[in-house]
Amino acid sequence: MANVINLTLPLYPGMPVGNVWAWDTPFRQEPIVTLERNGVRIDALSLHSETGTRLMMAGTIDGKAPTVGQIDLAKFVNRDAVVIDIPKNAEEEITPADIDRCVVPDPNYQSGDIVLIRTGWGNNQRYEQMGDAYAVRTPHFAEAGSLRLAEVMRAKQSDTVAIDVAYVGSCGWKFMKREWVDLPRWQRPPFPSETAKIYLSMYTPDKALPDWAASWPLHANGYIIAALCNLNLITKKRVKMTALPLFVRDSIGAPVTVVACEE
Asked: What is the SS3 assignment for 131?
């Protein structure tokens, strides 16, 4: 009998992933009608395209790349994935040495696999315990580590990396963290506030590109599935993985539900 493991970060008000950067629109859930007053419950939900566990695509950096509505979602159903452990603590980087030590020699890594990287950051509901620090202090790729993994994946004909870090790149440490995240909360009201819009109007490519440089090689290589959780519940080196995004036709990424199946 197959063991199915949910790897998806739950969406809930106040959740950290999608709550800290200037372009974030925090997840909100508000009642429209209630059982007590109306005899039926319906909620209003609002979020942005990189809230929680999410699929990110080349469209983030390439205006000619396909949207969610233009890809064959069958490519994310029952895919072979290899589980690779690269343990990391808060703010630590995944380097080329990590890729060469943990990914390259792994005998279980087969051609075309999803590379499912387990750092440990998504274990034991850490996201609830740490709050926004879960997003800000996440382990992440160094730019050189991202370049090296993309190189290895191309050689193996792999187009998707999935990982349990909140954010893949260097977390805006050059500009956005200092100019936005480190401010008192009342000085950085979330998008679509006028404050956020003004800041983003001045967040030009000379800031954005170095802030998130470690993300771009993996975007360009294909697909990223980030902010997974519960990878510690996987007991095997190879699993079947399914990842279905919210079907927002013209979006370049979307929240995604991910499960792993151990056969």
From this structure: coil
Please tell me the total number of residues recorded for the chain in this structure: 263
Give 109's pLDDT tier (boundaries 50, 70, 90).
very high
Cα–Cα distances (Å) from 71 to 50, 144, 148, 222, in that order, read 18, 29, 26, 12
The band of 244, judged by pLDDT with boundaries at 50, 70 and 90, is very high
Mean pLDDT is highest, among 56-60, 74-78, 239-243, for: 239-243
Q: Are 12 and 29 in contact (CB under 8 A)?
A: yes
Separation between Cα atoms, residue 73 and residue 12, nearest integer Å: 26
**What digits encode the pLDDT tens for the residues 2-33?**
899 999 999 999 999 999 999 999 999 999 99
Q: Which two tokens stand for residue 214?
A: 């470690």
Domains of the chain, earliest start first:
3-21+48-262 (3.50.30.50)
Cβ–Cβ < 8 Å for 27, 52 = yes
pLDDT tens for 82-96 read: 999 999 999 999 999
Token pair in block for residue 258: 């991910």
Tell me the mean pLDDT in the region 194-206: 97
Q: Are 69 and 249 in contact (CB under 8 A)?
A: yes
Burial class (CB in 10 A: 0-12, 13-18, 19+), 217: buried
- In terms of C-beta density within 10 A (0-12 exposed, 13-18 middle, 19 or more buried), how is residue 184 classed? exposed
